[in-house]
Amino acid sequence: MGDEREGVMATDFFWSYTDEPHASRRRQILSQYPQIKELFGPDPLAFFKITAVVLLQLCTATLLHNAGWLKILAISYFFGSFLNHNLFLAIHELSHNLAFSTPVYNRWLGIFANLPIGVPMSVTFQKYHLEHHRFQGVDGIDMDIPTYTEAHLVSNVVTKSVWVVFQLFFYALRPLFLKPKPPGFWEFTNFAIQIALDAAMVYFWGWKSFAYLILSTFVGGGMHPMAGHFISEHYVFQPEQETYSYYGPLNLLTWHVGYHNEHHDFPRIPGSKLHKVKEIAPEYYEALDSYKSWSQVIYMYIMDRTVGPFSRMKRKVSNTKKSE
């Protein structure tokens, strides 16, 4: 990794000259435990879970139309943020077609799950996220990795704290600036439906209801326990490992995205069943470093002087092959 020394932040990424680890581990596990294939397929409860959260969040927004701003901010952070981040990870689940066997149904459900988030993103997210799986860490393709500009600017406790607060903006805007994809029918559909919901919220209930939704998205993606997964998943705290799992209670609210090694190994298994992968093949995961607290991960990221945006594994496209 660059020129990292004890107590000094690196000035370049970790560079790997091997393929990403998940495709080969998937083959090894399936050859030894073929019954894992029985876990593949949609989560039959996904539609109902998403619908419940969407309706709860929209109803909460309408109830706050006359609330004071301090109350709106407090409820956004301590309640709405959990719901909107849950929906963001529901969209992640749907990007892998894990609610229905028919892909287009997942896309429509993703647009529906997007509604309380306030900003159209479900269709675009799927395109970039699937590239993150197929080309994990590949320079110029995997938009999950910070830019050199981010990495050079975010170099101390203060700038790392600011970066964490606004990390959702970096996460969302980075691919649009670095690798824009031409919008198509589904992007326009996502945009039109989302703007119609936003306009209806403002027209019938006022700006405070709409602001509650936006605040729930913003604070839930920043200095927030659930947002710790953005850092915990692939930020390298141990040079020999590039993906990390989290085995804590917030998995219950986040579609079990904490089982991230398991997810990258088997992206066709819904989050609700990922724990079974670890139970069936424990020897492949118990030796890997993992976390039990996302809040602790955020604290470690900010306070550790050797860790920052450069703490990611990268590889050249010529040195890798597509994963699933």
Automatic annotation (TrEMBL):
What sort of enzyme, by top EC class, is this? oxidoreductase
- Which reaction(s) does its UniProt entry say it catalyses? an N-acylsphinganine + 2 Fe(II)-[cytochrome b5] + O2 + 2 H(+) = an N-acylsphing-4-enine + 2 Fe(III)-[cytochrome b5] + 2 H2O
Provide a Gene Ontology MF annotation, just one: sphingolipid delta-4 desaturase activity
> Would the keyword Endoplasmic reticulum turn up in this protein's UniProt record?
yes
User: Which keywords does the record carry?
Assistant: Endoplasmic reticulum, Lipid metabolism, Membrane, Oxidoreductase, Transmembrane, Transmembrane helix
Q: Which residues cross the membrane?
A: none
- CDD domains from the UniProt entry: Delta4-sphingolipid-FADS-like (cd03508)
What InterPro entries does its record include?
Answer: DES1/DES2, FA_desaturase_dom, Sphingolipid_d4-desaturase_N
Gene Ontology BP term (one): ceramide biosynthetic process
Q: Where is the Sphingolipid delta4-desaturase N-terminal domain?
A: 8-46
Membrane topology classification:
Multi-pass membrane protein
EC number of this enzyme = 1.14.19.17
Matching entries from SMART domains are given as: Lipid_DES
**Entry annotated with the keyword Acyltransferase:** no
Q: Where in the cell is it found?
A: Endoplasmic reticulum membrane; Membrane
Naming one, the record's GO cellular component terms include:
endoplasmic reticulum membrane
UniProt lists the family membership as follows: Belongs to the fatty acid desaturase type 1 family. DEGS subfamily.
Q: What does this protein do?
A: Sphingolipid-delta-4-desaturase required for the biosynthesis of delta-4-unsaturated sphingolipids and derivatives.
Name of this protein = Sphingolipid delta(4)-desaturase DES1-like
Q: Which organism is it from?
A: Cephalotus follicularis
